């Protein structure tokens, strides 16, 4: 497969690049900084922005699936996620792009906010409120578009790399528990789902 990974320079995106290449896929990696991405014969690196229609079009054109894995360390008010969504909708419309687009947001965005644990609710409220508000806008824009979407909401991200099993939750219901999950495991889910989409048009929570 030809997998386009948007936000590939660090975190979930970088892990997804590595795992996709290990499984023999061709990867087009878009990031504002591709320095940390190891070179590989099946890898195309694009230095650019997910909010640039030109850069995004170059990255996703001809791909079999798109992974949106962009994150930010900016804890202040941001429109990054909604800006990416608007650019994505514009570019996919122009390209008449009909392949799946898997989008990482976070558990606490959209309706999942009602199901947060006390601890996660406190963390998001104190430090990540603006990010998650904008991730909610991103979800709303994409879910109402013509994109063949899947929205993935991981729990609190860690850098553990222990290959632990993880849970995939496709329904919000009283009593669900979503805690931590490693970026490696999120990437594992993304590549598996890219290869064989089972949860299109659904909101999926991931937790260890």
Describe this structure in words.
- InterPro entries: NAD(P)-bd_dom, NAD(P)-bd_dom_sf, Polyketide_Oxido-like.
- GO terms for molecular function: biliverdin reductase [NAD(P)H] activity; riboflavin reductase (NADPH) activity.
- This is Putative NADH-flavin reductase.
- With about 210 residues, the chain is an alpha/beta fold.
- It has one domain: Rossmann fold, CATH 3.40.50.
- The protein has five helices and ten strands, in the order E-H-E-E-H-E-H-E-H-E-E-E-E-H-E.
- It has an eight-stranded mixed β-sheet with strand order 3-2-1-4-5-6-10-8, sandwiched between helices.
- Helix 1 (about 10-20) crosses helix 5 and helix 3 runs parallel beside helix 4 (about 120-145).
- It starts with a strand and ends with a strand.
- Read across the widest sheet, the strand sequence of neighbours is 3-2-1-4-5-6-10-8
What distance lies between the first and last C-alpha atoms, to the nearest angstrom?
A: 28 Å
CATH homolog superfamily:
NAD(P)-binding Rossmann-like Domain
Tell me the structural class.
alpha/beta
CATH topology: Rossmann fold
Q: Give the class-level CATH name.
A: Alpha Beta
Summarize the amount of helix as a percent range.
Answer: 25-40%
Biggest beta sheet summary? 8 strands, mixed
Quickly count the domains.
1
* CA-based gyration radius: 16 Å
- Mean model confidence by pLDDT: 94
Outline, from the CA principal axes?
globular
Question: How many alpha or pi helices?
Answer: 5
Can you write the helix and strand succession as a string? EHEEHEHEHEEEEHE
Number of strands: 10
Which residues form runs of ≥5 with pLDDT under 50?
none
Any idea what the CATH architecture is? 3-Layer(aba) Sandwich
Strand content: 15-25%
């Amino acid at each position: 497969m030809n997998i386009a990974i948007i936000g590939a320079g660090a975190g979930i995106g970088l892990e997804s690049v590595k795992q996709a290449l290990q499984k023999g896929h061709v990867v087009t990696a878009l990031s504002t900084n591709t320095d940390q991405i190891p070179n590989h014969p099946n890898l195309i690196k694009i230095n650019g922005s997910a909010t640039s229609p030109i850069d995004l079009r170059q990255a996703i054109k001809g791909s079999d699936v798109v992974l949106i894995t962009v994150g930010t360390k900016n804890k202040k008010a941001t429109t990054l996620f909604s800006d990416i969504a608007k650019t994505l909708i514009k570019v996919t419309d122009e390209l008449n792009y009909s392949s799946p687009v898997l989008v990482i947001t976070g558990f606490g965005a959209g309706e999942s906010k009602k199901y947060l644990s006390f601890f996660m609710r406190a963390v998001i409220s104190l430090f990540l409120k603006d990010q998650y508000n904008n991730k909610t806008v991103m979800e709303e824009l994409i879910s109402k578009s013509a994109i063949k979407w899947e929205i993935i909401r991981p729990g609190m991200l860690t850098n553990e790399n222990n290959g632990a099993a993880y849970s995939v939750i496709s329904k919000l219901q009283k009593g669900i528990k979503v805690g931590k999950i490693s970026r490696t495991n999120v990437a594992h889910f993304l590549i598996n789902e890219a290869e064989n989409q089972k949860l299109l048009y659904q909101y999926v929570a991931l937790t260890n």
